[in-house]
Request: fold
Amino acid sequence: MTHSPDTPSQTQAAAPRLSQSQFPPRRVAGRGRAWYRGDCHLHSVRSNGGELTPEQLAAAAREVGLDFMAITEHNTCDTHGVWGPLAGDDLLVMLGQEVTTRTGHWLALGIEPGQVVDWRYGIRDDVIDRHLHQVHQAGGLCVAAHPHAPYPSGVFMYPFHQFDVVEVWNGRWSSDLPWNADNEAALAEWGRSLAAGIHGGRWRPAMGNSDTHLAGQIGIPHTVVLAESLDSDAILAGIRAGRSWIAESAAIELSLDVSAGDRSAGIGERLKTRSESAVVRTEVRGVPSGTVSVHTDRGTVHRESLPSDGSGAVEWRTSAADSAFVRIEVRHPGGHMAALTNPVILI
Reply:
């Protein structure tokens, strides 16, 4: 399968009148601190290869149990203005863009209504920082997208350290399963950089998205975010801080808690161990006969199997002296991913 981003002429030809647009609200009222499920890489018919209308995307997001979504057309804001009537008290719609440069794609999430981020450059032009800064000025988030995508310009050539988040799991490019060798490579690359990032004081969280273009793709996978409320700023803050994990579908549930003495920390948080032993506990549902593995800066340090009903708890002990962080992967029989977490950091 090949991929051709929209050209400038296509972008201009279909541009709506943004002055008459109905942009989606940035907040869903009445929704407080909770874990929210969302897919932040979605395309409508407006993007090359997209076959779903905005109405179909919104309906599909609700059907698979998403609380939020981000529309990320290729190099255009043309559909920003149609999402107002499609959002609601059960679905937050965030505005974004997939920026398809010559040497890698990235997601600009939470940008302003009508904002377009330039994509006509490559790594040798040395201008990426300027465009990332524009997104940050708008309060947005910059995500390195599908780093090992199997087509020209899809392979990500920019350093991860310039971005806020890395999309380690992209669901589009596998014909049978939403996990493939390209995702495995992205996860390994991110994982190798994690210890150095934590040691240096700035690590980049992982996220997963479907990269939906066709029916049946949305939410496979998606990111589950702990946010103070269901609004764009809170969701982006949760993703930026790494208070999130990635799920293959809404049928999968996961929790991770690390405790030492009377203190505990969850995904994306730091735990002061005071040289005490730390208990790592993860609970999983929805992965029949799967395998839970524990990962630290020493690699994969523990594995346990789940029962045939897919529900179980795994405990493991460590310390800050032995582990700079702890993160979890859950895989189906056969090895394809069901869920993975960002780390809990031990200090």
Remarks:
- Residues 181-200 form the longest helix (20 residues).
- The longest strand covers residues 92-101.
